[in-house]
Design brief:
It contains 9 helices and 10 strands. By secondary structure, it is α+β, with helices and mostly antiparallel strands. The protein has 2 domains: 118 residues, Phosphorylase Kinase, domain 1, CATH 3.30.200.20; 184 residues, Orthogonal Bundle (Transferase(Phosphotransferase), domain 1), CATH 1.10.510. A 6-stranded mixed beta sheet has the order 1-5-6-4-3-2, sandwiched between helices. Strands 7-8 form a two-stranded antiparallel sheet. Strands 9-10 form a two-stranded antiparallel ribbon. Helix 4 runs antiparallel to helix 8, helix 5 crosses helix 7 and helix 6 runs antiparallel to helix 7. The longest helix has 20 residues. The chain is elongated and about 70 Å long. It starts with a helix and ends with a helix. The structure holds adenosine-5'-triphosphate. Adenosine-5'-triphosphate binds next to strand 2 and strand 3.
């Protein structure tokens, strides 16, 4: 099991892989999961700042003690293999089970109390949600474009590793001090036992407004992430999840850096178009992430995109993970 100095070394040495972390260590660095160090909470977890001698980490403590070990193992397996500058770095995990004697239905029993936690790099600048604004104000174009490209690079990495994020939305995109985006919360299991009944498995995935239409029939695929990405791109460019193209291009024309107006306006147009293409109802019509990256890299091969896209879709279908 890793010690405090192991964790400090991991934080400063990016080549160190994730480790098993004792609950006592995570308890100590969060000052006993103190409310003062709480960063926030989502549907299934509370996230705390963990204080080390050489910096901060984020400790995600899952609320649900019913999470099945098999699922936790799957999550760890998924998180361990991921390493990319646009994906939040995974530092370690903790699966602790402690027997507690208590009275249940009139009998004195030994109950297992499970604690399941993840530890990640701490990303200091909050999540993308706080930076979304209309084109007329807020982040300048260069920053918005840098964020869009970073998200795409991170998603490309996940898709190359056959990981479907399944809940890409602004709250799950964190920003570091240089406004470099880092994708968080992928693979973290959303498959929990229903608390009320105790035995029904409830699959909860996605966030309203970002979920691809096929989610509602339970078919999640790589192209479902592309739909969410399209909504996010549109939101970054326009401040709204759906938008009228011409208006926004005119607004940007008036706001761009004069010396780069031509090239930046092209970038705006590409992003507006990508937002529309990525949110096609038919998943097969959405461009794959690699082609989106080519478009953003200003490789002017738009004519080839649809041709490559259908080739890709054919290949992906044969592999069974489109
Ligand atoms: N590594 C991290 N560094 C800094 N802040 C983080 C980190 N991970 C999560 N947070 C912040 O902690 C809060 C809670 O995160 P969490 O992932 O539990 O919730 P969520 O994504 O809002 O909800 P859900 O998990 O239900 O989708 C969010 O505000 C998020 O910005």
């Amino acid at each position: 099991m890793a010690t405090l100095s192991d964790l400090e070394r991991m934080l400063s040495d990016e080549s160190e892989g994730p480790k098993a972390l004792p609950l006592s260590l995570l308890f100590d660095i969060t000052k006993g999961f103190s409310d003062d160090l709480k960063i926030g909470s989502g549907g299934f977890a509370v996230v705390y700042k963990g204080i080390l001698g050489n910096g901060l980490v984020a400790v995600k403590r899952l609320n649900n003690s019913y999470m099945i070990d098999e699922e936790f193992l799957q999550e760890v397996k998924c998180l361990i293999k991921v390493k990319h500058q646009n994906v939040v770095r995974f530092l370690g995990y903790c699966a602790d089970t402690q027997g507690v004697a208590e009275t249940y239905n009139g009998n004195f029993v030994m109950a297992d109390v499970h604690q399941r936690l993840f530890c990640f790099e701490y990303v200091p600048n909050g999540n993308l949600g706080a930076y979304i604004s209309e084109a007329s104000h807020g982040l300048e174009w260069r920053k918005r474009y840098q964020i869009i490209k970073g998200i795409c690079e991170g998603l490309n990495y996940l898709h190359q590793n056959n990981i479907v994020h399944s809940d890409l939305n602004p709250a799950n995109i964190l920003l570091d001090n240089n406004m470099v985006p880092k994708i968080a919360d992928f693979g973290v299991s959303r498959c929990f036992r229903d608390n009320q009944s105790g035995d029904i498995l409830t699959k909860v995935v996605g966030t309203m407004g970002y979920m691809a239409p096929e989610f509602f029939s339970g078919k999640i695929k790589l192209k479902s992430d592309i739909y969410s990405l399209g909504v996010i791109i549109t939101e970054i460019v326009t401040g709204k999840r759906h938008s009228e193209d011409e208006d926004v291009i005119e607004i940007w024309r008036n706001r761009l850096e004069r010396s780069k107006e031509h090239s930046q306006l092209e970038q705006v147009k590409v992003c507006v178009k990508l937002g529309t293409e990525c949110t096609e109802f038919n998943p097969g019509k959405r461009p794959p992430i690699q082609l989106i990256i080519d478009r953003l890299a200003e490789k002017k091969k738009y004519g080839l995109v649809h041709q490559n896209c259908s080739e890709f879709d054919g290949r992906a279908r044969r592999k069974g993970f489109q």
